[in-house]
Write a structure and sequence with these properties.
Length: 119
């Protein structure tokens, strides 16, 4: 089994910044990719950002591009999400997920961390 634990959420004013972390533990594995997703109250879960482990390529949702940055630490099997210029519409529970098989989908998910942006 793989466990993912997020941290770093909280309450911040609009225009502020937060840095989320997601640490993977459990059985030995090499991630193929890790990603961040978010779900606001009454809305569907949506993709935020992802990073591939080997190529270090990244992708972002249009709504966060230029404001959020995803990065990783191989040795710690940790992925980060640096969030700047936060807006009230960024308020959501942020979850990380990991792809553990080549060509697979996200197969392990964290519990999430709450991010609240006040106006």
């Amino acid at each position: 089994q793989v466990q993912l634990v997020e941290s770093g959420g909280g309450l911040v004013q609009a225009g502020g910044s937060l840095r989320l972390s997601c640490a993977a533990s459990g059985r030995t594995f090499s991630p193929y990719a890790m990603g961040w997703f978010r779900q606001a109250p009454g809305k569907e879960r949506e993709f935020v950002a992802a990073i591939s482990w080997s190529a270090n390529s990244t992708s972002y949702a249009g709504s966060v591009k230029g404001r959020f940055t995803i990065s990783r630490d191989n040795a710690k099997r940790t992925v980060y999400l640096e969030m700047n210029s936060l807006k009230p519409e960024d308020t959501a529970v942020y979850c990380c997920a990991v792809v553990t098989t080549r060509g697979g989908s996200y197969d392990y998910w964290g519990q999430g961390t709450q991010v609240t942006v006040s106006s």
